[in-house]
Amino acid sequence: MNQKNTLVEILSSRKDLRPAIGSPGMQDLSYAQLYELVSNTVSQLNEVGIGRNDRVAIVLNNGPFMATAFISVACGMTAAPLNPSFCADEFEFYLKDLQIKALLVEKDSTSPAIAVAKKLGIMIMALLPSTEIAGQFVLEQCGAEKLHLNSGGWAQKDDIALILHTSGTTSRPKIVPLSQTNVCTSAMNIAATLDFEVHDRGINIMPLFHIHGLIAGVLAPLSRGSFVSCTLGFNAMKFFSWMNEVKPTWYTAVPTMHQALLTRAKHNQEIISQNPLRFIRSSSASMPTKVITDIEQIFQTQLIESYGMTEASHQMCSNLLSPGIRKPGTVGIAQGVEVAIINEKGELLKSGLAGEIVIKGPNITAGYENNPQANTESFINGWFRTGDLGSLDSDGYLTITGRSKEIINRGGEKISPREVDEILLNHPAIQQALTFAMPHEKLGEEVAALVVLHDGYSADEKSIREFSSNYLADFKIPKNIIFMTEIPKGATGKMQRVGLAQRLNLN
Hints:
Helix content: 25-40%
Strand content: 25-35%
Shape: globular
CATH topology of the domain at 13-183: Rossmann fold
Strand order of the largest sheet: 4-3-5-6-7
Distance between the termini: 54 Å
Oligomer: single chain
Largest sheet: 5 strands, mixed
Radius of gyration: 23 Å
CATH class of the domain at 13-183: Alpha Beta
Structural class: alpha/beta
CATH superfamily of the domain at 13-183: ANL, N-terminal domain
């Protein structure tokens, strides 16, 4: 398939009546309707003075309207999707930091973003969703006068399609601008990796203010003309009824979501057998090997673990679908990018040697916005430094050992929390585990872990430490084990180790 460098190039090649976007309980939106919606939205925004590279903040709940609003805006402007659960202070930070020109919200929304936008003099566009057709909407301008249009029409390949912030767990969030070429390249790389066909049906449960859901969940399948049903967000209780209605051939999620579905899958075996999946995809965080095995056994399909990050427009590496080689425990081989390992001096290392993972390719951001220090630190000899640690085997398969910022430094002993997680998850009573650093007066940091037990199982700190001692050196064994009913997660569903002790008031 020929490379397409803008979103409109992807959409304009598909203007037929096949379904593009759906949602449980609603009529499907066809590719022809999607193209018409996108064209009308770009024209309407141009009419009020919003054009190429102008930034439009989108504050909508998850679902088909968020998906089509993002696509529509990104085809002619710069889309800035924001977490709708932000408070007023957070909205004010992001709207200012991104220099937003317009805010898109649902009509009659009570989001605090509206008052903030009014305070900042930002134009507000109200989205009126269809009650029948998934993703179909009309826009209304609210209040502010028309702006001066600098450049209208379709976005070009070097224009910024999507702008996001890094998580900012250890520092001020950095602005990541992603060009049309960046996001289209990544979407088409993912589509090629997963071999999407027009008959494929995806079900998106990922948040659409995050790179994973936007690119892998929505744009990648659309680039091949397949269908995506956009749910209203992740809900393990509803997933299997959605599965029965949508009849998906695949879905993508983060490990915590997979684990939540796994606990309920055994009660939904009939639905699973009646709706066989071609594959399951996992990304955004490492998947414990045991969980991969359990998921594949109960869903009777292959789980494809991938590796992505915001700065790479999501995917960099992926395992391969059968009959390709799949190595559980790795995140696969490079997909449309170059991947290498460097040492602390920035020198490239041979296969088998561990160091920092670096990447280069057309899907990677040209650099952080207004942050020369971060760019200096993040780019070396044309390579982007991921901050992740790992090694490549002789076949080019990448194993991630952790984040450089997550490594626990216990009195000079360096401990990978992923290694400890893997051991804890082998304990018969433990369903989930998250190892992290806890401050220690003498050692600097000590090993701690959150654990969630399987229903009907019991365990105490002593028995878990005794179990761990069979597989781990003493200095790696968690000295503080905290039992919880659920491990706290970030807005995107990822478990966040960095700063966890502080958030739990364990300092």
